[in-house]
Amino acid sequence: MKADIIVPTFNQEDHTIRCFDSLREYTDNYRLIWADDGSTKESREKVSKVVDCHSEVVKLWSSSNKGFIKNVNKALTFATKVSRPEDTKLIVLLNNDVILTEGWLDRFRRIFINDDMLHAVGPITSECSSWQSFLNASHVTHGFKIPHNFVSHSANERAKILANHYSDLMMPCRMLAFFCTAFRREVFDSLGLLDERFELGYGDDDDFALRMNNASMKLGVSFGSYVHHVHRGTFGTIYTPEEIKAIQAKQHERFEAKHGERARVV
Asked: What's the rounded Cα separation, in Å, for the pair 2 and 256?
């Protein structure tokens, strides 16, 4: 299963370079779609020095900052409508503040092959507020337990530990955070793009996941997959914690106004 891997960026080139380096080291059979949303010339030049090491790269650059959701949708439109290789079966949405680990995409592929009904899958991640953090997943889903001494290990060591403990075990869920999520391409053919009323982000993944639920599409979290996420690596440099809380509150209001309910993980 070849994958289109969409990485939206806005400055923060150190995060992007680290993400792209881990992508090249631990991934095969993919096309990287780098969707830059008006970064500075200096930032793009730094990333450009490393991105061409990838075997297949598409650069979608905006001249000015259009906002996170519009940037992602531009890349999704390219992947699903403009340039749509018939051998590309998966689309991955990947934040630029993610560090990938050995075997991350191969495990996703096996899970899709083993479950024809699955439409999207995401990993366990590092210490952060996301429910997919290993610290929180054990409280939200049935069956996930933090392995002994897990915290003391590096990202790749954690990935190996979870792979050994859980192999290709996948637990169905209602919602995935889109910092690292793989979809069957037909999901976007059927449901379209992310809802741009969420503008800057936060709530867009809850909304799209609920749209998948309503279309009887199955989502799951892979207990045996681990990637490191520098949570709010970009947002945290643009907005203060108080501003982020205000943005989140506004997005919750938009979600409830649209759907008449609050977002749920399970």
From this structure: 36
Q: What is the pLDDT of residue 234?
A: 59
Please, are residues 265 and 173 in contact by the beta-carbon 8 Å criterion?
yes
**In contact, 68 and 38? CB cutoff 8 Å:** no
Q: In the structure encoding, which two tokens stand for residue 110, read together?
A: 């096996």
Give the amino acid at 37. Answer: D
Q: What is the pLDDT of residues 171-208, one digit of tens each?
A: 999 999 999 999 999 999 999 999 998 766 678 899 99
CB atoms under 10 Å from CB of 142, counted, come to: 7
Phi/psi for 5 (5° steps) reads: -110, 110
Which domains does the chain possess?
Answer: 2-259 (3.90.550.10)
- The per-residue b/e assignment along 94-116, b for 16 or more CB within 10 angstroms, e otherwise, is bbbbbbbbbbbbebbbbbbeeee
Q: Around Cβ 175, how many Cβ atoms within 10 Å? A: 22
User: How many Cβ atoms sit within 10 Å of the Cβ of residue 225?
Assistant: 29
- Tokens at 203, concatenated: 């709530």
Which long-range contacts link 154-158 to residues 24+ away (Cβ below 8 Å)? Answer: 155/99, 155/101, 155/126, 155/226, 155/227, 155/228, 156/101, 156/102, 158/101, 158/126, 158/134, 158/226
Backbone angles phi, psi at 124, to 5 degrees: -80, 145
User: How confident is the model at residue 238, as a pLDDT?
Assistant: 65
Among positive and negative, which fits the CA dihedral 46, 8, 68, 156? negative
Strand partners, 61: 36
